[in-house]
Here is the input.
Amino acid sequence: MKNLSRAARRVEAALRERGFEVTIQELSQSTRTAREAAEAVGVSVGQIVKSLVFVAGEEPVLVCASGANRVSLEKLAELLGRPVRKASPEEVREATGFAIGGVPPLGHARPLRTLIDRDLLQYDEIWAAAGTPYAVFRTAPAQLLAMTRGEVVDLAE
Ligand code: 5CA
Here is the structure.
């Protein structure tokens, strides 16, 4: 792998530490949004994993959602038993150590409770952000669950 940026190397290290041999691809084309990522790697937008941070009460929670879905705040609040709001860009950076557009599903500044959108399970191949708005990696639902130790839930609007 050539010249990965520092943020992408942090994600690569987290993957390796957990025993996943995954190749991070840092592209010249933007993967900042799910739509851009889908175009860049040539998959449907539903196959892109959006790593979104919400705040439940005081606790930051990571939601890995299919790029085709909008996360329902009502469903999240019901699941978590607390009022839920979307994190600010500063809160995202503080909780994960990464900026919006590059937030990966693992390798965060501190361990985050993680929920996985069940709609991701229908795909053989999915792609997630790897630390920067140009870095992604290919994975599969079972692998995403293993690397995040996330809970599968229904959270689409
Ligand atoms: N690299 C792609 C996927 S591989 C990616 O990171 N997509 S994402 O969906 O996980 O990240 C973009 C998301 O950041 C948006 O869907 C949006 O929910 C969130 N976001 C963008 N701007 C803001 C903002 N100002 N405040 C809070 N969240 C934001």
